[in-house]
Amino acid sequence: FALGIAVVSVGGVLIFAFTRQVFHPAARWARMAVTHAVLVHAVVAVGLIRASSRGTTLPEILTHTRPWACALVGVLSLAFAWAAVAAFRYFAMQRRKLALGLADPVVTNRFLLWGLANGAISLLCATLILCLMAKMVILRDPLPLTIIGAVGVPASAAWYLTFFPPARYVESIRRRAAAASAATR
C-alpha cells in the first residue's frame, strides 16, 4: 500500500514538474508550485499511509483514510487541471499561428490532445472525490470503476496520440491543415 501511494505521489509531482518544465520553465512561481506540490504530496502520502493502519475492519480503515484519500486525489486533480489549462492556452496560441502558416499542425494537435486528456483526468479526479465522500470504495464499487474506464480509456488514447502518433494519424492532421489553409486562400 505504501509503495503504491508513493508511486502515485511521485507521479503527481511529475505532472506538476512536467507542466512547469514545458510551459513555464523560467517562471519562479511555477518552480514554487512544484516545490509546494512535493511538500503537499509528502504530507498527504504519510498521512494516508499512517491512517491505513488505524482500524481492523475495512469500514474502520476507510473512515480514517477517506479524508487523506480525498486530499491525495484533490492534489492530483490540481496537477492535471494545471496541465490542461497550460496546454489549452498553448493550443489557442498555436492555432492563431497555424492560421498564418507559422505553426506545425501536428504540434498544435498535440497541445489539444494533451489538454483534453489532462482535463478529462482532472474531472475524473473531482468525480472520484465525490465518490469517496459518498463512502464508495473506489476500486470496488461499480460506479467509480465505470467512470474510471469511461474516462481513462479515451484519455489514455489521447496521451498515446500526443507522444506516439501513428504515421496515418499524423498524415491526416497534415492533410486537414492543408485543406483548411487552401480553403482560406
Biggest sheet architecture:
none
State the distance separating the first and last CA atoms. Answer: 59 Å
Report the portion of residues in β strands: under 5%
Estimated structural class: mainly alpha
Give the proportion of residues in helices: over 70%
Instruction: Tell me the number of strands.
Output: 0
Evaluate the radius of gyration: 20 Å
The helix/strand series, from N terminus to C terminus, equals HHHHHH
Mean pLDDT rating? 96
Number of discrete helical segments: 6
Given the C-alpha coordinates, what overall shape results?
A: elongated
Low-confidence stretches: none
Structure report:
The protein has 185 residues and is mainly alpha-helical. The longest helix has 42 residues. The termini are far apart.
Features:
185 residues, 85% helix, mainly alpha
Quick structural overview:
This protein has helices spanning 2-23, 28-51, 58-99, 105-133, 142-163, 167-184. It is 85% helix and 0% strand.
Write the layout of secondary structure elements.
Elements: H1 2-23, H2 28-51, H3 58-99, H4 105-133, H5 142-163, H6 167-184
Helix pairs in contact: 1-2, 1-3, 2-3, 3-4, 4-5
